[in-house]
């Protein structure tokens, strides 16, 4: 009986030696060591890889001007993030910025931010692409004008508008922040004004034109 108990303890001990417990929870990949292969603590070849999925980290980049806006308003760094998936659906969980790199990439002029998103259903997987959206400011009834419609002469900004009887007018404006390919116009325009976006070099103030509608494409940021 004692010999049988000793044999059982030895078998249990050998089983414990052969069992490896992962230090983290996540999704495990393929086994990289075949059955019967020698496994040591200092082996260069890992047994497998495990990726944590909940929470999951999302990395994206912002421009220097965007980062400076964040620093001027620290609450922006605490604002919830929305993630738009590859199929243009909105991920139900909201993320938070947790960390930033310590230097700007001189090649691109951008800074990497790192955010974490709850992922309880394991919908997100490492390597996926998506678009990160954050509300930086709330402006009601803001007027947006495409960047290429704005003419810069020294410190003055102007746009060409279509006035009464389709007559071209030169209008000085004052802009605020940039939103995608558009600029917010603080002064100089009012709702209903028609701004010339294409063909500014072909017209002059006082000339008559035949305008056609212009539809600006939506802007979005991309992250992974």
Question: How would you characterize the overall build of this protein?
Answer:
The N and C termini lie far apart (61 Å). The longest helix is centred in the N-terminal third of the chain and has 17 residues, at 2-18. This protein folds into three domains: 2-51, no CATH class; 56-134, Beta Barrel (Elongation Factor Tu (Ef-tu), domain 3); 143-202, conserved putative lor/sdh protein from methanococcus maripaludis s2 fold (Beta Barrel), CATH 2.40.420.20. It is 12% helix and 30% strand. The strands form four sheets. Strands 8, 9, 10, 11, 12 and 13 form a six-stranded antiparallel β-sheet that branches. Strands 3-6-5 form a three-stranded antiparallel β-sheet. Strand 10 and strand 11 (168-179) form a beta hairpin. The chain is mainly beta. The protein contains two helices and 13 strands, in the order αβββαββββββββββ. The protein has helices at 2-18, 64-72; strands at 27-28, 50-51, 56-63, 81-84, 96-100, 110-117, 131-134, 143-146, 151-153, 156-162, 168-179, 182-187, 194-195.
